[in-house]
Amino acid sequence: MGWKSTTGYIFFLGEAPISWSSIKEPVVTLSSCETKYVTACEETWQVAWLSSLIKDLKVDLTKKVKLLMDNKSIINLDWHLASHGRSKHIETNFHYIREQVNNGSLEIEHCRSKMQLINVLTKAMELDRFKNLRKLINVTSVNESLA
Question: Domain residue spans in the chain?
């Protein structure tokens, strides 16, 4: 039995969020690993588009784009070219991430789930945690900004 997950991303340029999304995945996946991989691939396409846009705007990026992931199995899939039993059903077009890492356009780094900023847009949570994550993405409520 498969499921659809709510996933998303937030991209920053310096300290400022410049692109974000939170959506119910359009495809049904068979495992959480596959869900994360589909999402990571969509994020990688967004990285490529944003990088192209930033170059067109004549902005020099001094740092490599980092994709922060809370799922170590996805990071392992990207670095280890060997076939994995649980990932055989993932279509080859999702290996675009590996290509971007190998050509130096992207770096994947582990981030603890508790510190994953996108959770503010995709998960239910306690108010204090919500406010903390919201602050980390430099978003304030209207009431706080008026005070």
Answer: 6-115
